[in-house]
Design goal:
Elements lengths: L6 E5 L3 H13 L3 E5 L2 H11 L3 E5 L7 H11 L4 E5 L4 H9 L4 E4 L4 H25 L9 E4 L2 E4 L4 E4 L2 E3 L3 H12 L5 E2 H9 L8 H14 L9 E4 L3 E4 L2
Parallel strand pairs: 1-2, 1-3, 3-4, 4-5
Antiparallel strand pairs: 6-7, 7-8, 8-9, 10-12, 11-12
Helix pairs in contact: 2-3, 6-7, 6-8
This protein binds calcium ion (CA).
């Protein structure tokens, strides 16, 4: 990890707010990229691979919802949405298209920094875990707890209703990926890419088969899953 700076992509067309965000984020030690419209933002995200995206809803061209939907098909980057209205609908739609969190304008910089930090924790977990895979000596002692389901990341073990057991490697990776992105609909293609990797050339049926196996192990009633939910004609969502 070292002193590598986190890269923040700010997508907002309001110049004064962009300026404030840019200044505040840099002061906190972040590397900041900015984009004033939706299409340019998608290009920037593809090119610069930010660690987090701060995304306004009201944008020229593509709006924030569309940008979010498109980015979510391609990347797992945390997305913090900004909305001008405190409307419940905005929040619901925002989360439906895959935003991880949202903030209503006007907000304090302090509040924004807290949200950014919380979302980046997820990135840090991902990076630490790949470090462990690569043989680094640090051990991640982390558990994800969802009522009767515990995912022990350091032991790569799952505990269901008090009973611990090991999953096949891909089953475990899939479960962790889904759990990390709980509440977000994940397409089969994205799951394939993230869990199996680009080089994998089996079809997306692979995902379905592994989800079925997982359900048999972690769902109380595998034919009526409440944890690994199917989103018709799209993919899957983990309910946390
Ligand atoms: Ca705007």
């Amino acid at each position: 990890m070292g002193d590598e700076k986190y890269r923040v992509l700010v997508v907002e067309d309001e110049a004064t707010l962009v300026e404030t965000l840019d200044y505040s984020l840099r002061r906190q030690g972040y590397e900041v990229m900015t984009s004033g419209d939706g299409r340019a933002a998608i290009e920037a995200a593809r090119r610069d691979q930010p660690d987090i995206v701060i995304l306004d809803i009201m944008l020229p061209g593509l709006d924030g919802y569309e940008v979010c939907r498109i980015l979510r098909q391609e990347t797992n980057v945390p997305i913090l949405m900004l909305t001008a209205r405190s409307d419940e609908v905005d929040k619901v739609v925002g989360l439906e298209v895959g935003a991880d969190d949202y903030l209503t304008k006007p907000f304090s910089m302090r509040e924004l920094m807290a949200r950014v930090k919380a979302l980046l924790r997820r990135v840090r977990m991902d990076r630490e875990e790949s470090a462990v895979v690569a043989g680094a000596p640090d051990v991640v002692t982390e558990r994800m707890v969802f009522e009767n389901l515990v995912i022990d990341l350091s032991r790569r073990e799952v505990v269901v209703a008090g009973q611990g057991f090991h999953l096949k490697p891909k089953e475990f990776d899939l479960l962790v990926f889904l759990a990390r992105n709980r509440g977000i609909v994940l397409t089969r293609d994205l799951i394939l890419e993230r869990v199996w990797g680009w080089e994998f050339d089996g079809g997306s049926r692979t995902v379905d088969v592994h989800v079925r196996w997982l359900r048999e192990k972690i769902e109380q009633d595998p034919s009526n899953p409440v944890r690994l939910v199917t989103v018709r004609s799209v993919g899957y969502r983990f309910e946390g």
